Amino acid sequence: MKMATIRDLAKRAGVSPATVSRILNYDSTLSVSDETRKRVFQAAEDLNYSKHLSKKYQRFSGKTAAIVLWCDPEEELNDLYYYSIRLGITERLTELGLKHELLYAGANWEELDKYAGVIVIGSDQYSAGQLSILRHLPVPVVFVDSNHLQDGFPSVYSDFRSAVEEIVDHFIQTGRTKIGMLAGDLSDHYDKENLPDFRFRNFKRYVQAKELYQPDWIIVGAFTSESGYEAIKLAWPELAEKPNCLLVANDAMAIGALKAFRELHVRVPEDVSMISFNDTTVAQFANPALSSVKVETNEMGKRAAEVLLNRLEQPDRLPYALQLLTKLKLRQSSIN
């Protein structure tokens, strides 16, 4: 079978070959819409595209790794954060000579042991029962986007703790000490004081240590633009005293919050500074442009695939974790 080329992807996605190449290489200087990126990623997936196949790893040819996701395919495409991690995994697995199968929410986990190994995207989205199944598998299991080393799983994750602390310090250094958070949670029955999101946990710990934590300034959405809009529109008018800065769990919710603030006649950043996470394309072209933390999602995926390969080559090696740096990019949504 003829292998797909950059030109094949460009034709399917309706863009130029140069645009395809820059998107697949995560060129941060490229200005295209998230919709265009989705079309290119989807074309790569549909055509089973890979950059090259390294002969060094031909001994793995024919083996299949499972990629476990907490969401369904539609949810994945609606959030480029997880989609980018997964594309990094699939691209590197193909280069290493391994096949892969995607197991979305609701998939049967009873035969996970038939795979050469398992890569799990996410963390708190999985139940204790599911983690127990993974812990007892006779094949290597690697977590990406979370640190489960304490549970015996090799892990690849980003340094969100330092990123949260850098954001809080930036707020304080710019005279903003009424610090709130637009946090994320997927449950309809969340406990606002005990959200599982590691960004919230790091935020609460650090702000409490500075004696600046106010529970009333924690507003919760569901990681979407719509939920960010609704959360701010509902909660903000009810606050007797309002924060003058917000850490936001992701860019999508920040976009929704910006819309809500405009309707409430709250000025950003004059009345409230905002800094979010992920630094997606939409962050750069928001109005005002969002200050945001750049997370190397594609690189996390690639590294997770390499860790799995390492476990296959050296199954008796002690588990280890890889932590990737993040970078705060300051733009117009925060007082800088």
UniProtKB/TrEMBL annotation:
<dbReference type="InterPro" id="IPR010982">
    <property type="entry name" value="Lambda_DNA-bd_dom_sf"/>
</dbReference>
<feature type="domain" description="HTH lacI-type">
    <location>
        <begin position="4"/>
        <end position="55"/>
    </location>
</feature>
<dbReference type="InterPro" id="IPR046335">
    <property type="entry name" value="LacI/GalR-like_sensor"/>
</dbReference>
<keyword id="KW-0804">Transcription</keyword>
<keyword id="KW-0805">Transcription regulation</keyword>
<dbReference type="Pfam" id="PF13377">
    <property type="entry name" value="Peripla_BP_3"/>
</dbReference>
<dbReference type="Pfam" id="PF00356">
    <property type="entry name" value="LacI"/>
</dbReference>
<dbReference type="InterPro" id="IPR028082">
    <property type="entry name" value="Peripla_BP_I"/>
</dbReference>
<protein>
    <submittedName>
        <fullName>Transcriptional regulator</fullName>
    </submittedName>
</protein>
<keyword id="KW-0238">DNA-binding</keyword>
<dbReference type="GO" id="GO:0000976">
    <property type="term" value="F:transcription cis-regulatory region binding"/>
</dbReference>
<dbReference type="GO" id="GO:0003700">
    <property type="term" value="F:DNA-binding transcription factor activity"/>
</dbReference>
<dbReference type="InterPro" id="IPR000843">
    <property type="entry name" value="HTH_LacI"/>
</dbReference>
